[in-house]
Design brief:
The protein is an alpha/beta fold. The chain is 36% helix and 19% strand. The protein has 10 helices and 9 strands.
Amino acid sequence: MARILLPPGHRPKKRLGQNFLVRPSLLRAIAERAGLTEETTVVEIGAGTGNLTRELARRAGKVYALEFDRDLAAALREEFAAGNVEVVQADALTFDFSALKPARGGLKIVGNLPYNISVPVIFRLLETPGPADELLLMVQKEVADRITASPGGKHYGILSVLCQMLADAKVVLRVPPSAFSPRPKVESAVIRFRLLEEPRYPVADWEFFKRVVKAAFGQRRKIVANALRGSEDLALPAGAVAQALRQAGIEPDRRAQTLTLAEFAELARVMVKLKT
């Protein structure tokens, strides 16, 4: 197991989701799968005790180590005072990733995301333009299953559609609870996101597209016509849902979990016109 270096009197904080990855073989595997070179700049989200930071620093030209916990950030600054690691005490939900301008080479984002903020962080990184075109993020296995699910599967839903519209997502590592200290109660997985320059299918209004997808999955047991018709968020005129489904070539008695990304994109395209 790798070292867990904590400041004096510091205990892992459950409210911050502090489960530190300590298995050396997995730390090396994550760093290797990041595909770093001496010209790569990498941003690590949730540097924690620096176990993964050390592996990244051996391979990358520059590492920005983000850590929300003030005490851990201070300890990391002391350890990495000299070298290619710059420690930043910051919240990944508010940090301006677009402000980072690598001097050379590309920029990648790597992180062991706290379970309680993993989904909002992922959406922020996918939806906000920035210099990184590849993410390597560890999340709860259940979240990874939802992100990578295909239409018709039990895990396919809002997260699947929105993430796959913006990136190629693939699970590259499975991580057991025993690889962490303290041990979480669930398994984890590392996902590689390769960001697309544009949504996979044309979307005129991304925010409206999201509302359509969320409304369709809002009541999974209902057929898509009824789920959309009952959505207050869409605020469509009477008869618009039936007309939109017809124009999009989607049978109204289908359920949202059977619709493909292309069908959601076409449905939103039609509906936004009917809304206006």
